Amino acid sequence: MLILGIESSCDETAASVAEDCRRIRSSVISTQIEEHKKYGGVVPEIASRRHCENILGVTKKALDDAGATLADLDGIAVTYAPGLIGALLVGVNFAKGLAMASGKPLIPVHHIAGHIATNYLSHPKLEPPYLCLVASGGHSHIIEVLSYTKFRVVGRTHDDAAGECFDKCARAMGFPYPGGVHVDAAAQKGDPTAFKLPHPAVAGSEFDFSFSGLKTAVINMLHHADQKGETIDRNDLSASLQQTISQILTDKTVRAAEALGYKKIALAGGVSANSGVRAALSEACERRGYEFFMPEKSLCGDNGAMIACQGSYNFLAGITADESLNAVATLSMDQI
Q1: CATH label, 128-297, candidates 2.40.50.1000, 3.40.50.300, 3.30.70.20, 3.30.420.40
Q2: pLDDT tens figures, 62-101
Q3: Which of 40, 305, 85 is nearest to 179 (CA)?
Q4: Is 0.70 surpassed by the pTM of this model?
Q5: Nearest to 322 by CA among 99, 15, 86
Q6: Cα–Cα distance for residue pair 136/273, rounded to 1 Å
């Protein structure tokens, strides 16, 4: 079985061909980071235009690299939600055109489900059910993976996501976009106990996240120091920030696993590339005797392989769409 996966939810135009769900035949990504870097973040209009320019070439290369043609495919999977609406529309409409022209089934894929699926590509023996922490620039979720296509959200952010907190604090510290990777690098040279940072909680929601207060605390600390003519060590602050976010994500995920009886935990999303988060959750699982899974770093960011993989399982479950499929900017996992 060959499934083409197309991803365009933010600022990466990506396509991939997956064979029999878990084998990557090809994976092509055209990133826009350098262009958005001068603006300090993703500019939606620019992202959409670049997707229009790049999607045909990226998809053609993915097929060529896989040694496949449209006729060889069993289906065409595409990210339809959530994400930047203009960016999503480019991928959805391109995939619909391919599906109609080739007569192949169109397979809708939720972006977060795609991130979860990266673990199937990295760990061939992983099977549901298990608990997964999905952390990225736009998402912070604790999700019960009940089957390959059924999910239940246990915890979610009420404001900023973990990756957003990393990036906005990084920007305040003077790091270029995307800031998370620079915070991670600086943290390796800093003291994680140098600053005591808040661990925001959500009243009445034990497993939900809130990172807005932490972000504000860091930004205010930097502003106050600047007003006094003082200098804060960026390495120490980065280390303290990374440790705090890692502890928050790990503590809530482990508590959710204990409450729900899971002894198998996975990590996914862009923030899953962060060394502090990877180490904290891995160590916590090891202490408790839990199985722990995380994707290869090359699969942590947005990519077409995760959409091809999840699309394969959707296809096997009979989840397809017709030409009325539309992009959706915001869609909870509970609604798919």
Answers
A1: 3.30.420.40
A2: 999 999 999 999 999 999 999 999 999 999 999 999 999 9
A3: 40
A4: yes
A5: 99
A6: 9
